[in-house]
Specification:
By secondary structure, the chain is an alpha+beta fold. The chain has two domains: about 110 residues, Gyrase A, domain 2, CATH 3.30.1360; about 130 residues, RNA Polymerase Alpha Subunit, Chain A, domain 2 (Beta Complex), CATH 2.170.120. Helix content is about 25%, strand content about 35%. The strands form four sheets. The protein has a four-stranded antiparallel beta sheet with strand order 1-2-12-9. Strands 3-8-4-6 form a four-stranded antiparallel beta sheet. Strands 5-7 form a two-stranded antiparallel sheet. A hairpin with a 3-residue loop joins strand 1 and strand 2. Its EC number is 2.7.7.6.
């Protein structure tokens, strides 16, 4: 296996992975979206709302604000989000209340416009946990005219994207093919028609040869193949090399999303292995 980091920023990570089946990478991609836990606002109690926005719309906007989870990911790793879902309204029977307390973070949003129109931003939300706060301070929530006021109490809890998209740690999680471009130099007459039709500028004539400038830019549209009168170029995809790209919503770092997705997958495979071993030993029928 070979890993090559093509891009790594605070918002995104892109890896070139060779020697790993596409199905495995696609599983990591799906787990990044559906199973990596984060915090999101789940319960909203609107005490006062004299703005022009309906309570339901306001609650929906608040729920979709990404909350930082990076600094508490180690703490919540051992908490079952499905159990937190049951704790949403009250502590279920037989469950330690302290466990439910770990699932939730209390937040308050209270703003009033006095003399001028104002915009309420995500930075106006106050959280009981200094580590679980809006990922971005400049997300607009609602505009208030003079005399208008909102007072809202909220509870953020741990959840997975499998339950609702507001818990998705990633906005984009994709796998892509890597192009395999072959040029027959004996047939190529350097007419340049393939370069003219290529929408991504992947090909270029240099030193009397047709060269691939950036194989990663190729979208496998095969327009160059169709345009080449000499049939000197062929475009396919690498069988054992693929790209996986994860873009974060802001709650977790992109590399953390990948790491946690792999961690959850390995745990599930370990449980599956134990189950199969139990069948072999006759413990499970």
């Amino acid at each position: 296996m070979r890993l090559l980091v093509r891009e790594h920023t605070d918002e995104a990570i892109e890896l070139d992975v060779k020697g790993v089946p596409l199905a495995f990478l696609n599983t990591i991609r799906r787990y990044a979206l559906a199973k990596v836990p984060t915090y999101a606002i789940d319960e909203v109690m609107i005490v006062v709302n004299t703005s022009s926005m309906f309570d339901e719309v306001l609650a929906h906007r608040l729920a979709l604000i990404p909350l930082k989870t990076e600094d508490v990911i180690d703490k919540i790793r051992g908490i079952d989000p499905e159990l937190c879902e049951k704790c949403a309204s009250s502590t279920p029977e037989g469950v330690d209340p302290s466990i439910c307390g770990e699932c939730f973070v209390h937040m308050v949003l209270e703003v009033e416009a006095t003399t001028n129109d104002i915009t309420v931003y995500s930075s106006d939300i106050r959280s009981d946990d200094p580590y679980v706060v809006p990922a971005y301070a400049n997300i607009p929530i609602v505009m208030l005219a003079p005399g208008q006021r909102i007072a809202i109490e909220m509870k953020a809890r741990i959840g997975r994207g499998l339950e609702h998209a507001k818990w998705n740690p990633a906005t984009i999680a994709v796998t892509k093919y890597v192009a395999n471009i072959k040029v027959d130099e004996k047939l190529c007459n350097l007419c340049g028609k393939c370069i003219e039709v290529c929408p991504r500028g992947t090909l270029k004539i240099e030193n009397g040869k047709l060269n691939v400038v950036d194989v990663y830019s190729c979208t496998l549209c095969r327009q160059c193949v169709k345009a080449c009168p000499a049939k000197a170029i062929d475009v396919g995809s690498m069988e054992d090399e693929h790209i996986i790209r994860i873009e974060s919503a802001g709650s977790l770092k992109p590399e953390t999303i990948v790491r946690e997705a792999v961690y959850i997958l390995l745990n599930e495979l370990s449980e599956f292995e134990k189950f199969i071993e139990g069948i072999g030993k006759g413990a499970i029928q």
